[in-house]
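User: I'm writing a tutorial on reading structure tokens. Could you give me a worked example: one chain, its sequence, then its tokens, then a sentence or two explaining what the tokens reveal?
Assistant: Sure. Here is the example chain.
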Amino acid sequence: MRGLQVLDEGRPVEVVRLPAMVAIFTAMPAQLRSVLFFLVVLALCSWHLDAGRNDNTISRAAMVAALVEHGSLCIDPYHELTKDKALVDGHYYSEKAPLPALLVAPFWFAAHRIGWVQPGEHGLLTDGLLRLGGFLCGSLPLSLIILLTWRRLRTLASPIPSTWLAALPFIGSFLFVYSGSFHGHLLAALLLLLAWRLRALGSFLPSGFLAGAAVLCEYSLFVFPLVWLVQDALRMRWRAVGAQVFGGLPAFLLVGFMNLMVTGHPLELPYADVAEHVDRSGGAFGLGAPSIAGLYGLLFGGFRGLFTHAPVAILCAFVAIAWMRRCGWRSTLLHPLVIPSLLLVLMIAGHSMWWGGWAFGPRHLTSVAVLLLAATLPRLPDRPWVDGALVWMGAWGLVVAIAAKCTTWYSLPTEIEHPFRDMILPRILHGLFTNSQWPVDAGFSPIMGSMLFLLAFGLSMRFLRTLETKI
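And here are its predicted structure tokens:
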């Protein structure tokens, strides 16, 4: 391939060749390549920032606005904007796990004090707050998850570039649809992924701390640290038990203090006093025995199925099953991910609203999807049929996830049982694209913003391929 040429005293001189560009990237320190990889992925994950008025995200944003504007956990000034709230002694509070809101609050406070943000129609609960929460709790965590996965993949020999193998299974899944949104699922998954990695390295104190923080993002994740404590106790690893308990103590004390401030009882969650959407048919907090419909719907159904909305996870599940058969039941029972993941699936399948309300994919299984992909992608066998399956499954996942992100996001009514066929594809055909992307704020039309995203995605993949090197 001929290089670009410039004139040097009348003579053409080659200045850049493609092999030379590759050599430049290869000569980069590993840390710089990691930074570039992260920044490219972060740009894709934060292209769309959610400012939609969803009950779930508004509930968290209301807590942030109340803390910054009124110095209180009470969201009375904003409660009419959301149905996801708790009613205690005549006052309204967010019933969400508190850490995502507590993380965003200092940044929003600083922006307000500096004068970068001004109160709007609903005080400090503005579109900017929702976007900041989406960036900090959605875009940033997913980008870090992909980076951590790539750092484990980049030394493996594979015909598929490790940069693509790390990024595309996540982007081509329901996980990408929640990046840029002020939910707690992706932040919880990142913290749990870090906790598992630290546990594997024998760092039990920080592992317990991060696992506790993950529970403060999503209460149902308590099954992971609980199972880890039981596993260590069965092996009589008492130092590990003590370190994890001590590491998780700050999270326990924080949630107890916040419960005391809201409900008056340190062990009573605001979720027990939900003002609307209350369903007591499933027992405490809507939980009950797992149902066949819930299990099938969460794993295989076109409505909320994990393997339907994260196709590459099918291959990862086969790898996990093969490992369990090879290693036997004892290793399976003592593995830090297998049993708690299965318990979480069973627990959500027994919930009276296992489908998660207005959602795209099984949002309550976000951590299961992240851990499954991150743990098994480095273990995929080097076989031609595996590479082919990765390409086809990854391509289909990309089509569905990007189409959803550019149109409906996760705003799919629960009565829509076939989201892609019945809602996402018709919106594409009619040119109905989302306003929640930064080119729209810059003056472009939604359809042009989506076309620019596709261009940016293609260029990003080309850049990541050029960045590829074996270390």
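What the tokens reveal: Residues 1-16 have pLDDT under 50 and may be disordered. DSSP finds 20 helices and four strands in the chain.
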